[in-house]
Amino acid sequence: MLSPQSLHKILGVTLLLLPCYAQGKPAHVPPVPGFRPERWTAQDYVPGFQSFAGNEMEDIALQLEDRISKLEGVLLLQGKITTSGGKIFSTNGKTADFQATVEKCKEVGGCIAAPRSPDENTAILYFVKQFNKYAYLGIKESLVPGKFQFLNGAEVSYANWYSSEPSGKGEEECVEMYTDGTWNDKKCNQNRLIVCQF
């Protein structure tokens, strides 16, 4: 059965990529009336949708999982997403400063890309090379100058710093990825490629 995490990843990527395909301003999609995800059961009734129970619900879930898997395959083939370690990485090809990148990724149900392994770094690098633009990573300098951590406060156990970096010594709090996959500490007000993870 499709896990909530998998569905969350696909929905987030879809929301991030949707403006790429829209003409003009993307339309606002209202929530489905009566849908309560925190208390969802097969017996819940959603106005406008037929009620399903038991095996029918499992069949629908399997069909949905198959369609999502195919959609993920199409997006991989088109170079719209990359995957690593159970994570999906995606970009809309636009640039923003660090805070706007964090907000955009959160808005679509993900977070700013933060590699925790060489494979994840390579997955993000795919977009940096494709668009030939540096990208911010979800890593910031801690209160201790020269020491960096993930945005949730977790210690960075994998790093790919460029030679002689980090060098900002408290003046450059954000981290960007160069087009060779190495990292540099940087001020947070520059526009960099938006890359999110789900």
Automatic annotation (TrEMBL):
**Main subcellular location of this protein, as a coarse class:** secreted
Q: Which residues form the C-type lectin domain?
A: 105-197
Q: Which UniProt keywords apply?
A: Disulfide bond, Lectin, Secreted, Signal
Give the range the annotation lists for the signal sequence. 1-22
- Give an example GO molecular function: carbohydrate binding
Q: Name one GO biological process term.
A: ossification
PROSITE patterns xrefs:
C_TYPE_LECTIN_1, C_TYPE_LECTIN_2
Checking InterPro entries in the record gives: C-type_lectin-like, C-type_lectin-like/link_sf, C-type_lectin_CS, CLec_Tetranectin-domain, CTDL_fold
Alphabetical list of SMART domains matching this protein: CLECT (SM00034)
> Out of the domains of life, which is the source?
Eukaryota
**Any one cellular component term from GO for this entry?**
extracellular space
Q: Name one Pfam family in it.
A: Lectin_C
| Location within or outside the cell | Secreted
What is the name listed in the Swiss-Prot or TrEMBL entry for this protein? Answer: SFTPA protein
Q: Which organism is it from?
A: Penelope pileata
